Amino acid sequence: MNITIIGTGFVGTVSAAVYASKGHSVIGLDIDPKKIKSLKKGQVPFYEPKLEQLLIKQQKAGRLTFTSSYKKAISSAELIIVAVGTPSKKSGAIDLTYVKKSCQDLAPYLKDKAIVAIKSTVPPGIFSTIKPIIKNKTDKTFYLAALPEFLKEGTAVNDTLHPDRIVIGADNKIVLETLGKFFKSYEAPIVKTTPESAQMIKYSANAYLATRITFINQIADLCEHNNANINDVIRGIGYDQRIGDHYWYPGLGYGGSCFPKDVKELGAFAKKVGEAKNLVRLINQLNEERIPRLLKKYETLVNGWEGKTVAILGLSFKPHTNDTREAPALKIIPTLLKKGAKVKTYDPKARWQPENKNQQYRQVPTIKQVVKNADIIMILIEWPEIIKFNFNQTKLNKKQYFLDTRNQFNSKKLIKAGYIYQGIGLPEKITN
Question: pLDDT for 316-340, tens place per residue?
């Protein structure tokens, strides 16, 4: 099948490489010539395991090409996938500028009976807006479909090759059958439904996962008031098949490119349709309040940030990615600097620098360097390199706080080594 994917960001690039590996002829289209030039060289502008090798392999095989020309990319495409960004406005509502512009620009070059599938996250009912935009620029017959993505940064290649499910939304039976055949080789459950249901599935999935994270954070807070252990609570409730022991992450809340944005957008959509008293809006509020609340608690624990050297471990929003969008570090570091702390950071992939290049901030290449002379060690992201590191060997002969916001370390061992330990939802006594 001849496929064109508009937008060579995270979703677009991964999808292009994987679809090409399935034997299809794929063109990646982007209006940024620098990005296209980089991709042609096999250079991915972000870190994603296995992607760069797959990208190079498929280009060498002749199944994958990149261009910034709409005419070249669209003219022979049987399936056009729109995978451009849909950022949130200040109000939380979705910004559809890039989706609308892509649809407008592809329309003049459409092949008759081509399928235009929207993979970008968009609210239900958006096809009533998109369809006239395309029809106004072409007299060709075309079909619309929704193909929501469910990729996780850090495992995106595997997620695309071995998906939990594939959701296809369309009002035309031929489109549902065509796309069903296209995805048959992926050996995953295929949900064929309307565009509106497909779009709600995407939002609902992310909102529910965000809810689990927010819920367990609320329970963790209660555990700290009653001597309960959040890890035992998770283990205990996990045996209930209706609940399960998976995807419970007590900590600093959810971040990244999808959850914060999608939860806000679903909340804005709820308000727009007259459902302002909505759980999703509360989830967003609780998540935004999470880090400021914990920072106040930690500030009291360490007797103020001023003059303290703080070692931050983990700049990305999760392991195995260099994406820092809505990452805890980017909310925490500015606060610490403002409060007079000296901040050093370590991350194996992500990089960050304050806008004012504050001299009190420095990113270092090793864990040993970041914890050197630190008064406070703050674990933000559970990178394997960080979790496997033996902090007992670097304990200094002075008061040091160990703030484990991911509950990844053995608190008893750290306390025995002399750290003042603080986890999330744990009953351990904080001792010298």
Answer: 999 999 999 999 999 999 999 999 9
How far apart CA 92 and CA 209 sit, in angstroms, is 19
What does the domain layout of the chain look like in residue ranges? 2-191, 194-432
Identify the sign of the CA torsion 89, 105, 161, 323: negative
Question: Do 146 and 118 touch, CB atoms closer than 8 A?
Answer: yes
pTM of the predicted protein model: 0.91
pLDDT in tens, 5-38: 999 999 999 999 999 999 999 999 999 999 999 9
Tokens of 28: 């990646």
> Of 82, 126, 175, 258, which one is the catalytic site residue?
258
Runs of H (alpha helix) within 349-410: 367-371, 384-387
- What CATH number belongs to 2-191? 3.40.50.720
**307 and 301 in contact (C-beta within 8 Å)?**
no
Please list the residues that pair with 313 across neighbouring strands.
346, 379
Q: Catalytic site residue 103?
A: no
Amino acid found at 268: A
Q: What is the CATH number of domain 194-432?
A: 3.40.50.720
Helices (H), 87-229: 97-106, 127-135, 156-161, 173-182, 195-226
User: Do the domains 2-191 and 194-432 sit in the same CATH topology, yes or no?
Assistant: yes
Helix (H, G, I), strand (E, B) or coil at 372: coil
The Cα angle at residue 185 between residues 180 and 186, in degrees rounded to 5: 90
Query: φ and ψ at 44, to 5 degrees?
Result: -90, 130
